[in-house]
Amino acid sequence: MDKQNRPKNLNLFTIRLPINAIVSIMHRMSGMALFLMIPALLWALNASVQSAQTYVDLNLVLQHWLVKLLLIALLWAFFHHFYAGLRHLAMDVHWMTTLQKARLSSRLVLVLVAISVILFAVKIW
Amino acid sequence: MLIELLTKRYPGMRLWLAQRLSAVYMAAYLLLLALLVLIKQPQAYQGWHTLMSAWWWRVLTLLFFVALIMHAWLGVRDVFKDYIFNLRLRAVLQVLVDVLLVLYLGWAVKILWSI
């Protein structure tokens, strides 16, 4: 078979991503989301330290249910990036690199993310 | 082995290492922040302000933002390289992101030095 005519399948509706690929692509997506939220983080940090009034105002903004939902989504991105990042670091030093262990650590990441997000959501609500 | 990889022959290795080191620093900083909040239980604005304004903590926080900007730059660059095939568009977007990140760092410095 020559190189030009190799079969390829890039149909996103028929490709089934394995769990490792899901954790990996979500690491990227959560990273981009966190990048986009940097200005919000800086704005909040500024408000929290600038004066007693801005601190109280920030607290009021964070009480709004829509903001709380956004915060939970943001923390989801953070926890995923955090735990999946630790997984990548572990692999860099050759821990859990067999297919079976990589699948196990992927599941572990998803479970830890779920627990962390739920705890955070309960705490702020 | 690692030292050898960090020489000029493999410039990508330095970026790779910078991405890892910034990640480790940020993780350590955030754990320390969580620990400080748990131990000191800062009450209202005064407590939070006292916690954030210690000179050594401001230095660590500034380092956090330096690590964050570096980490974001490397990450976004990788994503652009993988998904944006039009080189001109990629260059324009990259410059935009570079300018934004420098502005963010300046903003962080301004916030930390006016605490």
Description of the structure:
The complex is a heterodimer of chains A (125) and B (115). Chain A has 125 residues and is mostly helical. Chain A has a single domain, classed as Fumarate reductase/succinate dehydrogenase, transmembrane subunit (3 helical TM bundles of succinate and fumarate reductases). Chain A contains five helices and no strands. Chain A is elongated and about 70 Å long. Chain A starts with 18 loop residues before the first helix and ends with a helix. The mean pLDDT of chain A is 93. Chain B has a single domain, classed as Fumarate reductase/succinate dehydrogenase, transmembrane subunit (3 helical TM bundles of succinate and fumarate reductases, Up-down Bundle). In chain B, α2 (11-40) crosses α4 (55-83) and α4 packs antiparallel against α5 (87-113). The termini of chain B are far apart. Classes of the chains: A mainly alpha (125), B mainly alpha (115). Chains A and B meet through α1, α2, α3 and α4 of A and α2, α3, α4 and α5 of B.
Précis, in short:
With 125 residues, chain A is mainly α. Chain A contains five helices and no strands.
Blueprint of the fold:
The complex is a heterodimer of chains A (125) and B (115).
Chain A: H1 19-36, H2 38-50, H3 52-63, H4 65-92, H5 99-124
Helix pairs in contact in A: 1-4, 2-3, 4-5
Chain B: H1 2-5, H2 11-40, H3 44-53, H4 55-83, H5 87-113
Annotation keywords:
heterodimer, A: 125 residues, mainly alpha, 3 helical TM bundles of succinate and fumarate reductases, 5 helices, elongated, B: 115 residues, 0% strand, globular
- Form type of chain A: elongated
Distance between the termini of chain B: 44 Å
* C-alpha end-to-end distance of chain A: 60 Å
Count the DSSP helices of chain B: 5
Structural class from helices and strands of chain A? Answer: mainly alpha
Helix content of chain A: over 70%
Strand residues, percent of chain B: under 5%
| Highest CATH level, the class of chain B | Mainly Alpha
Q: Could you tell me which chain pair has the largest interface and how many residues each side has? A: A-B, 22 and 22 residues
Q: How many domain modules of chain B?
A: 1
